[in-house]
Amino acid sequence: MKKTAQKDTNQALDQKELKIGFEHMCMAKTLAEKYEENKEITSKYVHATSRGHEAIQIAVGMQLKPCDWVSPYYRDDSILLSIGIKPYELMLQVFAKKDDPFSGGRTYYSHPSLDREDMPKIIHQSSATGMQAIPTTGIAMGIQYNEKEGIQKSNNEKPLVVCSLGDASCTEGEVSEAFQMAALKQFPILFLVQDNEWDISANAEETRAQDISKYAQGFNGIEVRTIDGSNFEESHQTVKEVFSLIREERRPFLIHAKVPLLGHHTSGVRMEWYRDDLEEAKKKDPYPKLKKLLEKKGVALSEIINTEAKIKLEVDEQYERALTAEDPSPDSIQDFIFAPTDITKELGERSPKGKKKTIMVDSALFAVREIMQKHPEALLYGQDVGGRLGGVFREAATLAQTFGGNRVFNTPIQEAFIIGSTVGMSAVGLRPIVEVQFADYIWPGLNQLFTEVSRSYYLSNGKWPVSCVIRVPIGAYGSGGPYHSSSVESVLANIRGIKLVYPSNGADFKGLMKAAYYDPNPVVILEHKGLYWSKIKGTEEAMSVEPSEDYVIPIGKARIVENADDVHVENGESIGIISYGRGIYWSLEAMKGYKGKIELLDLRSLNPLDHDAMNQLCQKHGHIIIVTEESIECSFSLGLAGRLQRDNFKYLDAPIQIVGSIDTPAIPLNSDLELTLLPNAKKVSEAIDQIIKF
Question: DSSP 3-state assignment of 452?
Fold first, then answer.
């Protein structure tokens, strides 16, 4: 760990700074008291306050610049007040009002998101403890990337990032992933850890083996400072020094601030229910400490009293205004689910003349290469995608050599960071393309995908959409066994706020990759490993002529792979098959025995879905089969079948049939067992024979 000489934190602050700090602290204390006095009203929506933590929070907030970024946690209303947020704005949030500036009444008090020119930026903040560490570290990673590539917005400012955490949240594994990357890559970030020695009702002795100052020492490259966070002067001087070092040396720090918890854990978990240390905690209250310091610095007691009275009047007046402010309109409930995209039509040439067919994995590789050549804000990272290997499926081959290690690089084995960091990277203007090595490995990243990535646009009231592409190799192929073969589309399709595509051939892959990159929303691309090289018999059509560089396919638009003959449609002998991914090729093989009778629809996109195309298929044929690699029970396909039957009941001549895998907890390693479990052309044919009888 790089060491620096610690400066004297007893250097005196001037009277002006102390007065400003006291005004912020008085405001925070008065707000907390107002909420408590009116707890029957204010506790309708759960909230927490900064009582006891004010000194360190204000010390940080007063010294942040508009070029900086900060991620407060749910107890950090003093940070918000000290960067310039008005009490009225906080009260709008505590009452979940329409004009709540952070979320429009969609999320809790002190869960801010902010994009104002005159204040530090704040990305969407979730309520899951510690989860902000990864997205916030992603901001610092993005700042470092912009500086190295020379594409930062301003050369005059050196921004830094503050990630605020409670000590108890640092026991979360995802916080460790953030620490690891910050230490490894030396990001310009301060982890501010406020240690009040309480979890919820569990204290430090019950929940931690050591405090954060000792734990963080295991991350070589993060310098740690431990301070009395209830002492405003010590807090201010330590933050001043650390901020200066981060701006100059561009490396991570951690401040371990010991503070008392003087308020409730939240309005719903009251301190008198479980606390046995309240009297001891009151002795460490930062408020009387700062009052005494003001008097010592020559500020008259009468001036202090006048400040307190003025702030109380201000809080009372703003409270009444906020209480009667307008609630959100029910009509706004679906605002900001997806940011609008410019890709609404298929454009470019799908099959240029004179070109040879290329394998599917290369079609995507060429798409990424073209994107990176054109856009310096594009970068690729994940496990094993760097220059040494270029991806375990060679899906990133030559990219690191072409674009350098700053733009294409390996990450540690930490799927949560790979996914969650895209929130911060996107916020600073980058468009990351990241890879989770196998669909089976996505589970550690689901918390970030669900809690942070998918909800950012909605819960920030449209301020912070997350533009990223998450590549996920998927599917059973070549006896990958239980840990390399899974299909996960049903889980992902149930995460609102992400788009989900699943190409079945190279042309679609390239067109969808381009559309995903230009989409301002998070897009997950499921890439079937068995189609990458068309080595499986019957999947040769996954190879295609590489489309033109400007070729794009709008996400949410299905494609007819093969039409049924009109005569069979008119005679009521036709069947519609809906599929995607490898299911397309089982279907095509089965269709050979029913020439002209089957129309095959490739969904290409699982969210959003092309409902018009599917409904037209149902109404045209009256007989529908869905082919999927997933097992059927509780699946995406089963839900799809239910929706189609609901919307097209009067047009259907038979129940919709689903062909999928045998329902098991995992996919067996043995090749014969794998083949037994999976769908095949024979199973599709059997479904065709069955449904045509109706």
Answer: helix
Whether residues 309 and 407 share a domain: the answer is no
Residue 428 counted as domain residue: yes
Parent domain of 640: 559-691
Distance between CA atoms of residues 143 and 146, nearest Å: 5
**Cβ(609)–Cβ(666) below 8 Å:** no
Exposed/middle/buried for residue 350 (C-beta within 10 Å: 0-12, 13-18, 19+): middle
Mind listing the pLDDT tens digit for each residue in 554-598?
999 999 999 999 999 999 999 999 999 999 999 999 999 999 999
DSSP 8-state symbol, 483: G
**Rounded Cα gap, residues 159 and 152, in angstroms:** 10
Confidence at residue 11, expressed as pLDDT on a 0 to 100 scale? 61
Residue 563 in any domain: the answer is yes
- Residue 255: strand pairing partners: 192, 225
In this predicted model, which residue has the larger pLDDT, 29 or 273?
29
Q: Backbone phi, then psi, for 332, in 5-degree steps?
A: -90, 0
**What is residue 347's DSSP assignment?**
B
DSSP letter for each residue of 121-168: BB----SSTTTTHHHHHHHHHHHHHHHHHT--S-SS----EEEEEEGG
pLDDT per position as a tens digit, 529-541? 999 999 999 999 9
Which residues are 379's β-sheet partners? 432
Give strand pairing partners of 71: 163
DSSP, collapsed to helix, strand or coil, labels residue 683 as: helix
Mean pLDDT estimate for the chain: 95
Q: Which of 394, 402, 398 is nearest to 360 (CA)?
A: 394
- The answer on 519 and 428 residing in a single domain is yes
Whether 495 and 373 share a structural domain:
yes
Whether residue 189 is contained in a domain is answered as yes
The DSSP H or E segment spanning 116 is: none
DSSP code at position 521: S
Strand order through the sheet with 559-562 = 559-562, 598-602, 575-579, 624-631, 657-661
Same domain, 200 and 121: yes
Of 86, 100, 93, which Cα lies nearest the Cα of 42?
93
Active site residues: 484
User: Could you give the maximum distance between any two Cα atoms of the chain, in Å?
Assistant: 98
In a domain, 534, yes or no: yes
What percent of the residues of the chain are helix, what percent strand, and what percent coil, each to the nearest 5?
45, 15, 45
Half-sphere exposure of 85 (CA within 13 A, CB side): 29
* Residues 651 and 593 grouped into a single domain: yes
Own/partner pairs for 672-678, CB < 8 Å, 24+ apart?
Answer: 674/476, 674/479, 674/485, 677/476, 678/476, 678/629
Contact 234, 6 (CB under 8 A): no
CATH code (residue 448): 3.40.50.970
Contact 475, 444 (CB under 8 A): no
Instruction: Give the Cα separation of 514 and 642 in Å (integer).
Output: 32
Cβ pair 494, 549 in contact under 8 A: no
Token couple for 84: 């310039």
User: What confidence tens digit (pLDDT) does each residue in 453-482 have?
Assistant: 999 999 999 999 999 999 999 999 889 999
